[in-house]
From TrEMBL:
Protein name: Cache domain-containing protein
Membrane topology: Multi-pass membrane protein
Top-rank taxon, per record: Bacteria
Record Gene3D superfamilies: PAS domain
Length: 280
């Protein structure tokens, strides 16, 4: 339990320890930004009396989005989420030196700068997975009000990067990499991205990042949820070239929905290694 709480401290404060600020897609971030704007308006009216409303389940909690407040000394003042257990505590002491500096930089954001944004990666309390999270925050006097939301859908660039890393690892140490992929916690899962590996000689799965039941099954027989061939076309493609791309329909492990998937394929010796990203 103590370890879980320590991780919670790091997680909720990490969002204020990110040096780089990023723009978020308006459609995805609109509810979080709107909740923050609502909280800012309420705080302007109520001052610190608003903390009670921010810290209970009510109008300032929207699904997995909620308001939290810290002061410029690093003390949690209010939270409508799991970090409510930290109210009244200074958690800056649990941060490493580099993170502590970034933390202080964020806390000293000049007033009048408007709403700021940052991204980080942390465990989603709803599903237990490490996912990207985007936060909107604004300093008001000695307070910083913030709202964050998770971004489980990975990008094409992330998919290509994971494929590159996986291919290099397989070329360096095949056995260890296959074991890490099948471990499901071995660093080859990012958001809704995962790796799968097929033996091009036997045409059977050697590794799969989300479904171990597929191991040693015939990849050539794999079909999408509508019955269209998936495995055979990929094998045919890789029989002609060293790398390629293939689009099909598949279940997204994060959303649980069948979505369009764009897979990047590459040969590593007699192995086919693939990573694909989803689009709704």
């Amino acid at each position: 339990m103590k370890l879980l709480r320590k991780h919670a401290w790091l997680g909720w404060w990490w969002l204020l320890c990110v040096a780089a600020l990023h723009a978020a897609p308006a459609d995805d971030g609109a509810p979080a930004r709107a909740l923050l704007e609502k909280a800012l308006a309420y705080y302007q009216e109520q001052g610190d009396k608003a903390f009670a409303a921010f810290s209970r389940q009510g109008e300032f909690v929207d699904q997995d989005r909620y308001v939290f407040v810290v002061d410029t000394q690093g003390v949690m003042l209010a939270s409508g989420g799991p970090s409510s257990a930290l109210i009244g505590r200074d958690v800056s002491a649990v941060l490493g030196a580099d993170l502590r500096k970034a933390f202080q930089d964020a806390l000293h954001t000049p007033q009048g700068s408007g709403i700021q944004q940052a991204e980080y990666r942390w465990q989603n309390w709803a599903d237990g997975k490490i996912e990207r999270k985007h936060v909107y925050f604004q300093r008001v006097g000695e307070r910083i009000l913030a709202v964050g939301y998770y971004q489980p859908r990975a990008s094409a660039d992330q998919a290509r990067a994971l494929l590159e890393r996986s291919a290099e690892a397989l070329a360096s140490d095949r056995a260890a990499t296959l074991a890490a992929i099948n471990d499901l916690q071995g660093g080859f899962i990012e958001d809704d991205l995962y790796v799968f590996v097929v033996d091009l000689d036997t045409r059977r799965y050697l590794a799969h990042g989300t479904n171990l039941r597929l191991l040693d099954t015939d990849f050539a027989k794999v079909r999408d949820p509508e019955g269209k061939p998936v495995g055979e076309p990929m094998l045919a493609l890789m029989a002609r070239q060293e790398q390629g791309e293939y689009q099909y329909r598949w279940k997204n492990p994060v959303t649980g929905k069948v979505e369009d998937k764009h897979a990047y394929l590459r040969k590593v010796g007699r192995l086919l290694v693939a990573v694909g990203y989803y689009s709704p």
